[in-house]
């Protein structure tokens, strides 16, 4: 008989992850703010819950994939939160993109309750989640990492261990998202420079994406930026801005100036200020660069 | 019998290029400011010249690979310059990293003299030049490009045609160098953030370099930055600063603000101001980030 | 018989303000974290209290002048906080430099308790406070402002009313501190530019301070910056950084990019990162500019 | 009998200066690119010239007030330029806002010709020029400064001597214009922050302009910025951008990063890119800040 897992958060990322768990034979106790979304998972192996606490009851593992620090904190420590029911020795696998400070704070609360918290943020778009191709970054104590490993292995193409400090994996996630945003900004500046000088943005993008910058980020985002292809909306500018804020905040708590973080933070803040918060973040960045260039 | 080519400039890049031409059977009329460097090419097929004009006399092609706009302009239009002797219908293949404005200006002078100017800047380090692995970006009129093609084909792994506007390839070269600098800055910020949070810079660099950022720039420079390995000096900070100035200048003439250009320009200007001009540009960028972070 | 006022916070600013109130005949119930500091006020008219709650008991007015949002929040809402004892209809005059969000939040709590909160941050250094030369910015409801007016009038040279939105005066205070920091940065850049070009920093500073920029900020800070006179420490770099963070945070919640805020924020963050947090903020800014210039 | 002075350049600043010289009894040999503008000076004491050379012939002093380095260089060294006719021992009083490098270069050419070059850039708007209220910054050799003094004294309220290095006064002029632009940017950010938080921009501006920032720059520009009063066009954004470029260039040749110069440079470059080059620079800056804020 397969394990039952608590699962909280059926957003763009949570849904394909939950489906993969079901396909692998796990049973899920699922909570989502909009309860009707749970129906998308089908009824096979799914128990619908009315709160995070209900989803976390009587299981060895609960997975959360939520939008930000506040929602995660509320879902964990609030009235109907995970910690209300989580058994001693159970593990909370926390996959959301949050600050390391929140991770450390929650880890401490779990420890006090006798349970464990595992930071496990991921890289990859929803398609990658569906294809079990996520890169899963983890950090925390050895025993917790070992226990959670079989579950993580069935969700991604690699699980990378960033040590025993709880928030370590969160730092890596924030650093990576920063690098993605900085790459978008860099490409938008370079390709708009090319455009302003009479060159073909697409040709320039293809050249770099197939030579010095032959990496997924530069190929996939590069194509969208070069073509100014801003539909469909995959990841919203306002969520990108949230991540830029996490990076900025981390530069403050880490006591180090990060001028490139400033640039992407301001780019996305401007997008939000101009009312482009609901656009794809590729548009938020690329249109901002074009706009300032008078295009 | 093989063609004789004029060749001007035996720096880190010019020397391996000249050697490859000799190996391919071309004869070279060579000029270099420090004449003794010409001896490194051996005597087989080499004619030592006292001026660019002498090197450009009686040939169909002259190649120049020089340090900056000023040196190229002087070597072309000065008293002993290429234009003093270049035959009508001959082609000047200009491989230096210079501004598109200088390229346009020189192209006009060649045209007036009945000869042709071909912008042909390259991407690749000296090792790539030696291995005939350069990416050669060209722009200019069709006939000139066709004529020069056989020579270029024996120097690089690809020749990419960026259209008929003379300075087009120079814009691509400047944009590319900007993207390299911006990538270095981005990595230095991200890996120092990781370090400040107790993570292993090298592990973080290897993770990104093998996943989302699996491209040569992020692998090669990433390794140097993560390890703070600043020796040997490949490309000097002061030359990197020269390239940052070219990018900044181009953002001005193109009338577009480029905040990321500002960041890398200031980073390298700071390096020069602090007396680090002779260090490798990896050090100029990475040490600057560490320094500001109090490390 | 004169009114008794609760008074909380005997820092650089609070102490001269408290002394002026005593000199004007008010009785004070005083609390300070380091209790011994209360002795500096003398015993005449002073009641020493063990908590903010004790200081706020049985009075019509309580004044707080504290270091930051967190300390004010704790002193107001904590176990021994002001709200534990503050009478209905009494007024809390809050002079600290804090975010408008905290002001709004505290105002609501006072309202719920039947008392009033008045935002009353001030401009002026400790000497100005001692000389009753402060500029006091206020915002809040009319009745509260009218009630507090006699007390405020005896502390400053002007009381400026910025309307009825609680946090309004806090926005003005943050904007003003930002303008001071930006002026310091601007002067440090300009005078260092002069120095690097062989001019006399002091002469240049005196010229601008007596002509186009003939205002206190440019004269007083200008003299310190031009002379690189960093002693004695008046206002610490780490406190300046706190204010820069308030400005940055406000640019976020106001949804507007403020590039000059970025500059001063990074300047002071760098000072803190380099271990200069305890220096005067003039040093934090000016030495940072010199340092980057290789001086 | 009064001296005859050569005068070149009847722009917004040159015209009132020329009128004052005439009113003081000097005779003028005047050249202006648009010759018809010379008629505005009346015929009394005015000789109309066809070239700078003609204006500079047979006089002890020639004054130039031109738009930029290129125009001054052409007017001085070109075919019909000043140096073609300027007598040995005569003095060229150069009042334009130009780079110190151009000043040094021209000073050398004058010296070779036996004449002298005096850097004498000014602070003040056209109204100040008309009222003889300019601040005139000078630098150069003692004898030249002494000789020119009587003329300068009748044009401004003060002549400030910045030493014997030719370009010194030009550095001060560029530093001052930078400080003006930075002040405009700072005010636009602060007052827009106030606006976004429901405050009255004008009240906030008046408060700062009458207290901490009670200086002409903050009062005059502050009023325009607070009221978003962008008409009439006094000084064009594209000319402001030219000055920002001078400041940026000087930061490069001085080898020092100046982040605030970056900010104002980008602000005005954006204005030019967006097609606002002909607007007043108050609009170029202030509208840019509002625009990014989504207002």
Description of the molecule:
- Chains A, B, C, D: One of its GO terms (molecular function) is NAD binding.
- Chains A, B, C, D: InterPro entries: 6-PGluconate_DH-like_C_sf, 6PGD_dom2, 6PGDH_NADP-bd, HIBADH-like_NADP-bd, HIBADH-related, HIBADH-related_NP60_sf, NAD(P)-bd_dom_sf.
- Chains A, B, C, D: The active site is at 173.
- Chains A, B, C, D: Residues 4-160 form the 6-phosphogluconate dehydrogenase NADP-binding domain.
- The structure is a homotetramer of 295-residue chains.
- Chain A is an alpha/beta fold and 295 residues long.
- Chain A folds into two domains: 4-165, NAD(P)-binding Rossmann-like Domain (Rossmann fold, 3-Layer(aba) Sandwich); 171-292, N-(1-d-carboxylethyl)-l-norvaline Dehydrogenase, domain 2 (Orthogonal Bundle).
- Chain A is 50% helix and 13% strand.
- Chain A is built from twelve helices and nine strands.
- In chain A, strand 5, helix 4 (100-112) and strand 6 (116-119) form a beta-alpha-beta unit.
- The radius of gyration of chain A is 20 Å and the shape is elongated.
- Chains in contact: A-B, A-C, A-D, B-C, B-D, C-D.
- Chains A and B meet through helix 7, helix 8, helix 9 and helix 11 of A and helix 7, helix 8, helix 9 and helix 11 of B.
């Amino acid at each position: 008989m397969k394990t039952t897992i608590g699962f909280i958060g059926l957003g763009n990322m949570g849904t394909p992850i939950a489906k993969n768990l079901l396909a692998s034979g796990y049973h899920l106790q699922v909570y989502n703010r909009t309860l009707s979304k749970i129906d998308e998972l089908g009824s096979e192996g799914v128990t619908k819950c009315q709160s995070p606490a209900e989803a976390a009851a009587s299981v060895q593992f609960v997975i959360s994939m939520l939008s930000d620090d506040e929602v995660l904190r509320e879902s964990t420590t609030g009235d109907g939160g995970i910690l209300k029911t989580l058994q001693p020795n159970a593990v909370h696998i926390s996959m959301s993109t949050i600050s390391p400070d929140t991770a450390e704070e929650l880890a401490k609360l779990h420890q006090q309750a006798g349970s464990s918290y595992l930071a496990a943020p991921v890289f990859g778009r929803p398609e990658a989640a569906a294809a079990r191709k996520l890169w899963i970054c983890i950090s925390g104590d050895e025993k917790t990492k070992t226990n959670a490993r079989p579950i993580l292995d069935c969700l991604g193409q690699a699980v990378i261990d960033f040590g025993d400090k709880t928030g370590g994996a969160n730092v890596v996630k924030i650093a990576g998202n920063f690098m993605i945003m900085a790459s978008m900004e860099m490409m938008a500046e370079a390709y708009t420079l090319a455009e302003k000088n009479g060159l073909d943005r697409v040709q320039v993008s293809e050249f770099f994406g197939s030579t010095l910058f032959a990496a997924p980020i530069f190929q996939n985002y590069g194509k969208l930026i070069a073509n100014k292809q801003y539909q469909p909306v995959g990841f919203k500018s306002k969520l990108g801005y949230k991540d830029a804020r996490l990076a900025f905040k981390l530069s403050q708590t880490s006591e180090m100036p990060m001028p490139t973080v400033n640039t992407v933070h301001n780019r996305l803040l401007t997008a939000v200020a101009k009312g482009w918060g609901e656009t794809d973040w590729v548009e938020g960045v690329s249109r901002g660069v074009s706009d300032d260039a008078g295009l």
